[in-house]
Amino acid sequence: MVARNDTEIANQKDDDFNGDVKVPETAHQISSDSWFQVGFVLTTGINSAYVLGYSGTVMVPLGWVGGVVGLILATLISLYANALVAILHEYGGRRHIRYRDLAGFIYGRKAYILTWTLQYINLFMINTGYIILAGSALKATYLLFWNDGTMKLPYFIAIAGFVCTMFAIGIPTLSALGVWLGFSTLFSLAYIVIAFVLSLNDGMKTPPRDYSIPGEGVGKVFTIIGASANLVFAYNTGMLPEIQATIKQPVVKNMMKALYFQFTVGVLPLYLVTFTGYWAYGNDTSAYLLNNVNGPVWVKAVANITAFLQSVIALHIFASPMYEYLDTKYGITGSALEIKNLTFRVCLRGGYLAFNTFVSALLPFLGDFMSLTGAISTFPLTFILANHMYLTAKKDKQSSTQQLWHWLNIVFFSIMSVAATVSALRLIAVDSKTYHLFADL
Q1: Taking the domains of the chain in order of start, what are their residue ranges?
Q2: End-to-end alpha-carbon separation of the chain, Å?
Q3: How confident is the model over 23-73, as pLDDT tens digits?
Q4: Could you tell me the CA-to-CA distances from 431 to 100, 213, 288 in Å, in that order?
Q5: Topology given in CATH for the domain delimited by 27-434
Q6: N or C: which end of the chain has fewer CB within 10 A?
C-alpha cells in the first residue's frame, strides 16, 4: 500500500479517491445523535447476550490469571485502537462515514475493497452468532417448561431469524433505534443481574471448583490461542466509522466521550458476569452461562427471554452497514412506510437474514464463531489496519519511538491473527466431526 502525501490529498476531488472509487452519499441519517446515545450503541454491543458466553469461552481456556489479565489488557488496547480510528474520522478535511471510505482515502482502491470484504465478513459472522444466541435463548426457555425433545435448536434459530427480520423491516436506520436502545439496556441489565445473582448463589453453595485449564498438548495450545481472539471480539464492533457517522459535531470530541463511556461504565457489567460465572462453575462453565445457573424457573425464563430480545436489537446494530449500503445503492429514501421502501426491505433485508439464519442453523457452534470472527476480521480491522492507517496518516507528526510502537502493534497482531485463524478453523473442524450439521446443541 502506498500512502499519498498532503499535496495529493489536497488536490483530490470530494467525490472520489485515487480517481477510480466513487464515495456515495448515504441514504441514512448522519450527525443526528448525541454522544450519549452513541455511547449506548457501543455499550449495547459489548453487553449483548454474547456476554453470557465469556465465562466459558474466555475464562475456561485461559484460567484466572490469563482471563483476568487478558480481559483488562484487551480493554485498554481496544480503547486505544478505536481512538486511533475515531481521530481519523475527519482526516483530509472530510468525514469518512464508512470504514472502507477511510481506508480507500488513505491507500486507494485495493484497500477499499479489502477493508469492505473484511468488514462484511466480520459483521456477517457477528450476526450469525446473534441468531445462534437468540435461538439458544429461546430453546433454553422452552426447556424450562417442556423438556419433551420435540423442538430442536435449528427450529428455534429459524424462529429467531424470522423475528430479527421483522425488526429489521420495521427499523429503517441505526439512528431510528432511539427508544429501543433504552429497552436494550433494560434487557441487558435483566439477564446480567439474574446471571450474576444466580451464579453467586450457586458459587456459595457448591464445593470447591476446578479452575485448571482443560485439555492437553497441541489441543490445549490451540484452545488458548482461540480464546485470545475471543478477548478482542468482546470489545470491538468493526464498524466504528459507521457508528461515528451518526454523532453530532464535533464528531471526534463527541466520539471520544462515547468511547470513554463504553470502556469505563460499559465494561463493568461484562466483568461482573464473566468473573462471577467462572468463579461459580470453574472449568465446567458452558458457552451460555444461563445453562449453568440454578434458581426459580420464572427467573431463568426472564433471563432467557430478555437475552433473546436484546440479541434481536443488537443484531440490527451490526447489520446496519449492510442495510445502509443497500439503501444507498438503490436510492431508498423518504418515509419508511412507503410501499416501495417496505417491499425493498422485506426482499433485501429478509434475504440477507434468511441466509444468515441458514448458516446459523447449519453450524451452531457459537464459541467457534466468536474465535473465527476475532481472528479473521477483528484483529485485522481493529488493530492491524487502525495502527497502520494512523501511522500512515500522521507519519510526519510522529517521533521514531511512536512509529516503532505502531509497527510493533502491526506485527504482533498480524501474527496473532494468523495463529488465531488456524486455531478457530481447527476448532470448527473438530466440532463438525463431533456434531452433525444442524446439530441440536
Answers
A1: 27-434
A2: 44
A3: 556 655 577 778 988 888 888 888 888 899 899 989 999 999 999 999 999
A4: 34, 19, 17
A5: Hydantoin permease (1.10.4160)
A6: N
